[in-house]
């Protein structure tokens, strides 16, 4: 009877250690706020709809961290110490994810692939962002919470004059970080091509000069031979 009972209990009914599992309007919620967690819990129930991991000490979101949570609608990762987010961090999260809060972390940059595939409303405010092309593309293409957009500030930037300013304000002024990167790439390619061209020219000059020296030696040798009628 005991083993039959175990088989009848769904695996998704377990609750991560230090978390509280409740129901909100008939949907399962897992509340792990302020529990000193250092990583994403691996034993989160598969049928969770609301997941709160805010105010912890999580530093990284690895690939496939939420792969098994296909019913997830709201995910709160605010007020952690997140510095790194992998490209496939949110891979497997269903299209039903409506809200993702990454505000008040230590995120300087983020792969655009990690966010642009989501349909969720994003909160990215109060992070030490490095203003670059990927962040610009997220701002233009992702669905950001309008109440927090002004708090996405350039902590570092290619030019000192952008530091401390809201990214939206910098972009509205006509700055395009993606075109800066493209120009940098073009310059690098031009320098590389010029270097190869220079090497080819030097090789040709050396080759011609070497052949000329060999020809002169052959002529001198022929002149030194005794003449015949």
From TrEMBL:
Subcellular localization, as worded in the UniProt entry: Membrane
Organism: Apaloderma vittatum
Keyword Membrane on entry: yes
CC annotations in GO: plasma membrane
The protein, known as: Leucine-rich repeat-containing protein 3
Keyword terms, alphabetized: Leucine-rich repeat, Membrane, Repeat, Signal, Transmembrane, Transmembrane helix
Transmembrane segments: 187-208
Topology of this chain in the membrane: Single-pass membrane protein
Annotated signal peptide: 1-21
Pfam families associated with the record: LRR_8
Major subcellular site: membrane
